[in-house]
Design brief:
Shape: globular
CATH topology: Ribonucleotide Reductase, subunit A
Bound molecules: fe (ii) ion
CATH superfamily: Ribonucleotide Reductase, subunit A
CATH class: Mainly Alpha
Structural class: mainly alpha
Number of helices: 12
Order of helices and strands: HHHHHHHHHHHH
């Protein structure tokens, strides 16, 4: 469950109190991260089309769930874009999104019928990993932000992302396909975690934060912009965000969220972040 205020599903941009915005409380790190996130969220219709192809034989209720999920993700993009344009009037979301669409075109979005994870169950495990990542990210942004409107926007989005996790987990557990072997579930979850530094986030960070006039001198390099994105967002995380993230990731992989492997992974991940200069020393102990 998200911390603090619990926001209900079904909110709109009109529910956000935009008049509370305080420009003096915007930080460059939050601004750069929110700009990048707005592009990824707004690109959800491509994921919806892909998932509908993967689940083409599934009951109608699954298809309508996927469509509703996509609408909520697009709304996340619109809310983040509106905040970013408020915080930086020079930011043109529509133009940045056009650049992003031109740069990021993965093959499975363009064509193909089956899941790139090899099965519908694998696809749902991967979706749970992604929703674990987004729920922890927006929780971390909400807790790191002093700017009141961003705090609210991130809080509302985080609540949606926790619900999305539950939704995909429920589809996974009600799936008619045969159960995957334990090693395969762990493999799918681990490979999806490893993709968190893939082209999508790097492309989004580049298109949102490098001005078109600067692009010839600063061409896109996946590793460079993946690292820049990671260095910005990982600084928002605290130990309890990581603990919850790991618990959420291991569950669909078939591991015990309260078990020793989960605790060790969480501790290892946090220490790795500390070694890389993220987080604070005060958070070394679990919250
Ligand atoms: Fe989202
Ligand atoms: Fe989501």
């Amino acid at each position: 469950m998200p911390d603090g205020i619990i926001y209900e599903a079904g909110w709109t941009l009109d529910d956000i109190n935009w008049s509370l915005f305080e420009a003096s409380k915007v930080t460059p790190e939050l601004l750069a991260s929110v700009k990048a996130a707005s592009l990824v969220e707004y690109n959800a219709p491509d994921y919806v089309s892909y998932l509908k192809r993967v689940f083409k034989d599934a009951p109608e209720s699954v298809i309508s769930t996927i469509e509703h999920w996509g609408e909520e993700e697009v709304q996340h993009g619109r809310a983040l874009a509106r905040w970013a344009e408020l915080a930086d009037p020079g930011f043109n979301f529509k133009a940045a999104f056009t650049r992003f669409r031109a740069l990021y075109r993965p093959a499975h979005f363009v064509s193909g019928e089956g899941s790139v994870r090899g099965s519908r169950r694998g696809e749902m495990i991967a979706r749970c990993v992604v929703e674990s990542g987004t729920s922890s990210l927006y929780s971390a942004i909400r807790d790191a932000a002093d700017e009141p409107v961003l705090k609210e926007v991130a809080g509302r989005i985080a609540a949606d992302e926790f619900r999305h996790y539950r939704l995909f987990y429920d589809i996974l557990t009600s799936e008619s396909e045969p159960e995957l072997p334990a090693w395969r579930k762990i493999w799918v979850a681990a490979t999806r975690v490893n993709e968190s530094d893939d082209d999508e986030l790097a492309c989004a960070y580049y298109c949102a934060n490098v001005l078109p006039a600067e692009m010839p001198a600063q061409p896109y390099r996946r590793r460079r912009y993946a690292r820049l994105y990671q260095s910005k967002v990982m600084a928002f995380y605290r130990r309890h965000h990581i603990d919850r993230l790991v618990k959420m990731v291991v569950k669909p992989a078939g591991l015990n969220p309260s078990g020793r492997i989960c605790r060790m992974t969480s501790a290892f991940l946090w220490r790795l972040m500390m070694l890389r200069g993220y987080g604070t020393r005060a958070d070394l102990r679990p919250a």
